[in-house]
């Protein structure tokens, strides 16, 4: 029975979309890591609580299948702040995160450094 559960989770991982704008920190990547750690021995893994395992699978499958999105359609595709979906994606992307961190670092250096900002050499961006 454990083999069946393992195969179901693998199929779910294959179907779960990856967000390429958030490499390594999107929900699909997290799910894959959790399945790998939960089924360390693959099909031979002994499940301590099969009911809970099945319940987790069913919950994730409903989310992946957009069950709740279809059941409770949104009037507008915005958040409570009024920010649209595409703007949220852009704000949460790796590109924005990197530029935000650089901007924050520069601001902190300017505030707390005794040197003027022109005296502080700027690092080349890391890849």
UniProtKB/TrEMBL annotation:
Principal localisation: mitochondrion
Q: Where are the transmembrane segments?
A: none
Q: Which domain of life is it from?
A: Eukaryota
Q: Name one GO cellular component term.
A: mitochondrial nucleoid
Q: Which GO terms describe its biological process?
A: mitochondrial respiratory chain complex III assembly
Q: Is the Iron keyword given for this protein?
A: no
- Give the subcellular location: Mitochondrion matrix, Mitochondrion nucleoid
Q: Which UniProt keywords apply?
A: Mitochondrion, Mitochondrion nucleoid, Transit peptide
From the Swiss-Prot or TrEMBL record, give the protein name. Mitochondrial nucleoid factor 1
User: What is the protein's species of origin?
Assistant: Acanthochromis polyacanthus
